[in-house]
Design goal:
Strand 2 and strand 3 form a beta hairpin. 33% of the residues lie in helices and 31% in strands. By secondary structure, the protein is an alpha/beta fold. Strands 1, 2, 3, 4, 5, 6, 7, 8, 9, 10 and 11 form an 11-stranded mixed sheet that branches.
Length: 250
């Protein structure tokens, strides 16, 4: 069973050192992660960015850039979507840059529009409806996001509106059924997304810090789905500015 996959008794057969054939790099301690190609491209145009590494995959991978935000070096890359790839990219990014603090932002579907409308969502726990987290953390329904309160304090200092709460991480984009959405709502989930549980499990396993924040663009109501703000939630450049401000403070 997938929930029996966690093995903390034996070592892995290989790791990023085998894939990249180099020693771990130590270029910075913070890395910003986006899922938006638009934000990624605009960042390269708006900041002086130096390519320092490349996360390698068979379908092209993703370059890692280094930029400086008010004297602080910050790594930055475009992540693949979904828990398994997003979490693996974090492992590779740590090896290639030395970063141990990851600020991750993206879009989500709202399960409670009254709470999330006009506010950033700061996950406190994530429901593990994906696969990779069961290889990095003991079995449980939810995984905690330990840095949620610290991120909330940063948002307070920046005067940003937010709501904290549980989120539902799922790999099955088209299987967010009426019954499953209802269950997650009853458990206190306010949004649904595709990465937080897996990336948090990897970060917790390795002792790294994850600071995730989300913007809801579609709404999953009791029996309907509305996508009226999805483009904004995915591609608004203000999220990048927020992430860089957080990067200075973590």
């Amino acid at each position: 069973m997938i929930h029996q996959s966690y093995d903390d008794q034996t070592p892995p057969l290989f790791g990023p050192e085998n894939v990249y054939g180099c020693e771990q790099q130590h270029l910075c301690d913070v890395c910003v992660v986006t899922f938006s190609k638009h934000i990624f491209d605009q960042t390269l145009k708006s900041f002086h960015c130096e390519q320092v590494a490349r996360i390698g995959t068979a379908n092209g991978g993703s370059p890692i850039y280094l930029l400086t935000a008010e004297g602080k070096k910050v790594a930055f890359y475009l992540s693949a979507i979904g828990s398994a790839l997003a979490a693996t990219f974090v492992i590779d990014a740590n090896w290639l840059t030395g970063a141990t603090k990851f600020i991750l932002f993206g879009s989500a579907g709202s399960l409670n529009d009254a709470l999330t409308e006009g506010r950033f969502v700061l996950p406190t726990e994530a429901y593990r409806d994906e696969g990779i987290s069961y290889h990095y953390a003991p079995p449980s329904d939810y995984i905690k996001v330990p840095q949620s309160d610290k991120l909330a304090r940063i948002f307070d200092s920046l005067g940003l509106p937010y709501v904290q709460g549980r989120v539902w991480t799922t790999d099955a984009l088209y299987r967010e059924t009426v019954a499953n959405a209802r269950k997650r709502r009853l458990e206190g989930c306010i949004a649904v997304e595709m990465e937080v549980a897996g990336v948090q499990a990897v970060c917790s396993h390795h002792g790294w810090e994850l600071y995730p924040f989300l913007v809801t663009g579609d709404v999953l109501e009791e029996t309907t789905h509305r996508m009226h703000k999805l483009y904004y939630a995915n591609h608004d450049m203000r999220k990048l500015i927020v992430a860089l401000e957080a990067a200075k403070r973590v």
